[in-house]
What we know:
11 strands, RVT_2, transferase, nucleotidyltransferase, RNA-directed DNA polymerase activity
Amino acid sequence: xxxxxxxxxxxxxxxxxxxxxxxxxxxxxxxxxxxxxxxxxxxxxxxxxxxxxxxxxxxxxxxxxxxxxxxxxxxxxxxxxxxxxxxxxxxxxxxxxxxxxxxxxxxxxxxxxxxxxxxxxxxxxxxxxxxxxxxxxxxxxxxxxxxxxxxxxxxxxxxxxxxxxxxxxxxxxxxxxxxxxxxxxxxxxxxxxxxxxxxxxxxxxxxxxxxxxxxxxxxxxxxxxxxxxxxxxxxxxxxxxxxxxxxxxxxxxxxxxxxxxxxxxxxxxxxxxxxxxxxxxxxxxxxxxxx
Length: 291
């Protein structure tokens, strides 16, 4: 069995017999309560439905919306604002001299942090089916100059197991890149490191559960053909790459040892695309369904 621990709370995974035996052993050593199947955990709701488990945040979403008087607001299909190079036309540009700073009586940062990813997603969740046998699959993407005023790009990646997302990230790159190809190499580097860790964790679980190791390389999908070609060749010091640190080509080594296989996918099918840029509502809905 596998225990996941958060402070004083435990979730125990395993067969019914293993869980029952584990609970008896723990009760013999510690004062504890058996609350049965997990239904709430760290703001997540777990529903055991036919064919799998649905994880969602409907109750948390309602709580947050009411806290900021947004429970009657209309949901948006694509709340992300398209960035603009023009200082005057960009709503997310630097603060203007004549703009006032909001005081502490207006919890602006709290509202943005809590609401930004919830708009229009109250009824969505992650459905982990027990029928899909697909293993670990990754998608990586970059949003070139997503922050035009600071000349920074965006890294996005998502990994699915059994067809549903288990790990994802969207973050601004700390290095100023010189091209979309350069930014893409940084994004793949981040995704590859996550991939290596996820493989290590899943292989450990499979081994402990008496299952065969998955020796096939993990497919990492990417939509930049030039970047994929560069990674196949490895680090070659030339005019186009001599300014890029060699460490960002580590994915090439993982390809050679059979850990990762970087393959091309169309941008419209790249699930990580929604983590790096503003998309049309129809495209956003399609990618959401993919993960």
